[in-house]
Write a structure and sequence with these properties.
Blueprint lengths: L1 H14 L10 H14 L4 H20 L26 H9 L6 H16 L3 H6 L13
Helix pairs in contact: 1-3
Length: 142
């Protein structure tokens, strides 16, 4: 809910205060998008978060009969390029693993953690929260 209030506040700042219901239009929101991108220099992903919360509010207003026109259907989040995830090369992984002294417990632990991360694609937070009680080796298919 806090995000909705915050994003509505940004819109309200752009509008300079309350606007009569009759003045709420698709053009108003297209201008708001341009303002965020060009005047404020916000990243498209930030603009899209704000647009999505405003569209949800407008959808609610339409469903409750407060708006006669489904404005939320007339403007969409802007297209953004997909983030390219950079991964380690095989050589970089080998170089990383070669730096670990696995003759000591901490080195062996670190190497096992790296192998688990690479083999399972589990998130680091999930790996760190894993406990012995979470693993059932008796009924494992391994």
């Amino acid at each position: 809910m806090q995000g909705y209030y915050e994003h509505f506040h940004y819109l309200n700042d752009f509008l300079g205060g309350d606007v009569p219901n009759e003045e709420v239009s698709v053009e108003l929101f297209r201008n708001y998008i341009g303002y965020m991108l060009n005047d404020q220099g916000l990243k498209p992903t930030t603009v899209n978060v704000r647009i999505r919360t405003n569209r949800a509010f407008l959808r609610h207003c339409y469903q409750e009969g407060r708006n006669e026109i489904p404005i939320h259907e007339k403007f969409k989040p802007i297209k953004t390029p997909e983030d390219e995830i950079q991964s380690f090369t095989s050589a970089e992984i080998k170089a990383l693993l070669n730096q670990i002294d696995d003759s000591r417990f901490v080195g062996f632990r670190d190497k096992v953690m790296i192998y688990v991360l690479l083999d399972t694609m589990v998130r680091i937070s999930e790996l760190l929260n894993m406990r012995r009680s979470n693993v059932d080796l008796k009924y494992s298919n391994v």
